[in-house]
């Protein structure tokens, strides 16, 4: 009886479109079938049907990701982010894959600044900045960031992804053109997609290609060249001097995402422009508070005052998303205090990077990248890279293998990231594990 009723209801509903069904259901409030109201039954049926449709669409997608070998597993950490982390199974590992470049994520002064702000300013603002989400510490941090970069002003976002999402659309119109390195970070690519400017993708770090594209777009109102300062998969640096030369020649603006440079790259940590001895020359810098600057969260844009004023009025991730929580603001602010006048942390990072790169090269490994704490150990084959990383973890060294489509086919690698908090002994332990496993599985002789 039950199944006949079910089948009849199903048949009846299939004949109706969604709106008509909703209409009938909303009027049918009294009739009841087999202990349940007709309305409830119909709604449950519709709910089950839409859920099974959802599953039908998603499951093949998930299987395809698994089959392609690109499924991302998440290892769960039971300790703060630092060089020695504890996993939930109690195993301690030496961490060589965080963006904790300056090792300040668990710094005591940073943590107490965050705790103090939590007590004084509360957990969060429950508001966007322009309604009632601006506290004095937000303004202070923006001023500190601008001073650190030697710029007129800065604006905070919930992340650098948001800063990238909010920049291009607010600044560029259909009369403008944007030139983007093909290997730029996904958030730059997405940000550019949101704007109406003509888009030109130039070959990775290929200045001839960039110049040709600039030549072809002389009629545009604004022309903006957009690049990562440091490309995080390779640890390579954008050819900034040449980019600036072309920008000058073709009257273009420059934008650099300096997430993998701010705070530690260049003589005093001012980033890619300082590395090239070109301080103050980039028009717009976006960066993150979620890597070297404490690692909590947050991002920003810094540049001319008029640009920052425009972003406060027009940038959608700024206008329509919550203010940064006070402890996050305070931790980044404390990190800027610690590094503005001192190169202690970045000097340690530099000597650790040299030690790792030199030891590995001497052992016969190929390490790519330009002098940067991102040290990709080239393995080639994807399965070998994954096996290598698993064996490293068995030896107590936490590293991750990267393979296609994140990096080109046959260029699988283990991306090692060095921190100022590593000791020389940590670096040697990691290098020894690489050498031992490298010999065992035939990556080196
Ligand atoms: C180059 C680059 N840009 C932007 C981001 C996004 O930064 P956030 O984590 O602050 O959103 C990242 C983070 O991985 C990055 O590497």
From TrEMBL:
CDD domains: KBL_like. GO terms for molecular function: glycine C-acetyltransferase activity; ligase activity; pyridoxal phosphate binding. Its EC number is 2.3.1.29. It catalyses: glycine + acetyl-CoA = (2S)-2-amino-3-oxobutanoate + CoA. It is an enzyme of class 2 (transferase). GO terms for cellular component: mitochondrion. GO terms for biological process: L-threonine catabolic process. InterPro entries: 2am3keto_CoA_ligase, Aminotrans_II_pyridoxalP_BS, Aminotransferase_I/II_large, AON_synthase_class-II, PyrdxlP-dep_Trfase, PyrdxlP-dep_Trfase_major, PyrdxlP-dep_Trfase_small. Residues 93-434 form the Aminotransferase class I/classII large domain. It comes from the Eukaryota. Keywords: Acyltransferase, Ligase, Pyridoxal phosphate, Transferase. Its cofactor is pyridoxal 5'-phosphate. Belongs to the class-II pyridoxal-phosphate-dependent aminotransferase family. PANTHER family: 2-AMINO-3-KETOBUTYRATE COENZYME A LIGASE, MITOCHONDRIAL (PTHR13693:SF102), CLASS II AMINOTRANSFERASE/8-AMINO-7-OXONONANOATE SYNTHASE (PTHR13693). This is 2-amino-3-ketobutyrate coenzyme A ligase, mitochondrial. It comes from Ceratina calcarata. The gene is LOC108632305.
């Amino acid at each position: 009886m039950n199944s006949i009723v079910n089948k009849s209801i199903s048949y009846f509903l299939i004949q109706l479109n969604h709106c008509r069904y909703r209409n009938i259901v909303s009027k049918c409030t009294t009739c009841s079938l087999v202990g349940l109201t007709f309305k409830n039954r119909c709604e449950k049926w519709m709910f089950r049907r839409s859920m099974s449709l959802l599953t039908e669409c998603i499951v093949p997608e998930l299987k395809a990701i698994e089959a392609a070998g690109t499924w991302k597993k998440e290892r769960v950490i039971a300790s703060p982010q630092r060089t020695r982390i504890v996993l939930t199974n109690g195993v301690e590992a030496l961490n060589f894959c965080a963006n904790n470049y300056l090792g300040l994520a668990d710094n005591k002064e940073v943590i107490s600044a965050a705790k103090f702000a939590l007590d004084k300013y509360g957990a969060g603002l429950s508001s966007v900045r322009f309604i009632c989400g601006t506290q004095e510490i937000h303004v202070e941090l923006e001023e500190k960031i601008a001073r650190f970069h030697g710029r007129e002003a800065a604006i905070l976002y919930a992340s650098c992804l948001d800063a990238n999402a909010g920049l291009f659309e607010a600044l560029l119109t259909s009369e403008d053109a944007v030139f983007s390195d093909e290997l730029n970070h996904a958030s730059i690519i997405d940000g550019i997609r949101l704007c109406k400017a003509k888009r030109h993708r130039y070959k990775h770090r290929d200045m001839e290609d960039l110049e040709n594209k600039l030549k072809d777009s002389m009629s545009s109102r604004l022309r903006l060249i957009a690049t990562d300062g440091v490309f995080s998969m390779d640890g390579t640096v954008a050819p900034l001097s040449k980019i600036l030369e072309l920008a000058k020649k073709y009257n273009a603006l420059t934008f650099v995402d300096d997430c993998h440079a701010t705070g530690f790259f260049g003589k005093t940590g001012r980033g890619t422009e300082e590395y090239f001895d070109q301080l103050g020359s980039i028009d717009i810098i976006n960066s993150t508070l979620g890597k070297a600057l404490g690692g909590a969260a947050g991002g920003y844009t810094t540049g001319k005052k008029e640009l920052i004023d425009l972003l406060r009025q027009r940038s959608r991730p700024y206008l329509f998303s919550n203010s940064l929580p006070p402890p996050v603001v305070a931790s980044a602010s404390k990190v800027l205090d610690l590094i503005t006048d001192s190169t202690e942390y970045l000097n340690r990072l530099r000597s650790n990077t040299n030690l790792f790169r030199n030891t590995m090269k001497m052992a016969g490994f190929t390490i790519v990248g330009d002098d940067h704490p991102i040290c990709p150990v080239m393995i080639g084959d994807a399965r070998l890279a994954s096996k290598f990383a698993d064996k490293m973890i068995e030896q107590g060294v936490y590293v991750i293998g990267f393979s296609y489509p994140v990096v080109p086919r046959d260029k699988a690698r283990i991306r090692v990231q060095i921190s100022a908090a590593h000791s020389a002994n940590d670096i040697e332990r990691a290098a020894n594990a690489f050498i031992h496993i490298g010999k065992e599985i035939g990556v080196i002789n």
